[in-house]
Amino acid sequence: MSEPRPPLVLGIETSCDETAAAVVAGDRRVLAEALLSQLDEHRPYGGVVPEIAARAHLDHLDALVRRAMAEAKIGFGDLAGVAATGGPGLIGGIMVGVMTAKAIAAVHRLPFLAINHLEGHALSVRLTADIPFPYLLLLVSGGHCQLLTVEGVGRYHRLGTTIDDAVGEAFDKSAKLLGLGYPGGPALEAAATGGNPKRFALPRPMLGRAGCDFSFSGLKTALRHAIEALPPGPIDARDLADLAASFQAAIADVLADRTGNAIAAYGQKGGTLVVAGGVAANAAIRARLGALAEKAGLRFTAPPPRLCTDNAAMIAWAGLERLRLGLTDGLDFAPRPRWPLDRSAA
Ligand code: KG4
Ligand code: ZN
Fold first, then answer.
1. Is 87 touching ligand 1 by the criterion CB < 6 Å?
2. pTM beyond cutoff 0.85
3. Where are the domains of the chain?
4. For 88-194, where are the E strands, in sequence order?
């Protein structure tokens, strides 16, 4: 008798400005990934325009799904399920992804899985490493900044969240102030290379305060004041590097301080600290959190950078995790522009 083959799930991600499809196997192999960034469409506006995003998802998703299936060398009949991001995010894009996944599921009589995008980020680390539940999670993306305990699939307890901007949003807005391109996070990280992180004394909002909440809007304002205090005209290369490095250091300090409080509250010696979401691609932030975890006696893990930013492999993986537990969804599932991971904390 031959070994049973690991189940295959098609994942679809359309909640923001990436149109993506991927096929992932239950044994953690990513068989295919097709991704289209809408950077060029949104760049002239300095941010994501919802109507343009929805239109682009509609124009490209079918071809990306076909490309992923061809690359995986399988037909729809070989799938064990179809997963799509069901929220939170931009409603137009989510509708495109959910309708496409439902259509494939209906025609081929496959289970449909509506995935919470945040759960995709939260479980992404288990796609590449054998990380058991529970673990402590710092989720840092363009729309969110949260500390959570991950007890299991679908079981999250929120310890803290941002009271104003998300951390990725702070990166993006600050990059704009510095005249860097969109998206701002990677541009700001690159600009900070070789900069002096101590030159500009930027504030560390919430530092030293009890609890696990975050605040970033004051930091962004302080950066604007620091820029305004420079000689008029374009920011020169030295000032730019020092401003970016100082901003990044302030963010890393705040994240480390709040995560330190979460580690104390979580109290699991020998447990794991995970950082996930787009901002987790930042090397300075990864290094800072790694050092914090080591000092506290925790294991530290972050997904590889390509799995930190939005992608469909993490959606397929969350689909596999849910399928394993029989947590499938009906074709009457309605997209959810808002969908907190911990409903009791909403
Ligand atoms: O998870 P993600 O791709 O999309 C959301 O779910 O929001 O996160 C996107 C965010 C953007 O704000 C982007 O600027 C930020 O992640 N980001 C970074 C880096 N790469 C992406 N921020 C700092 N450093 C980076 N290397
Ligand atoms: Zn995301």
1. no
2. yes
3. 8-124+307-324, 133-302
4. 112-116, 135-140, 145-152, 155-161
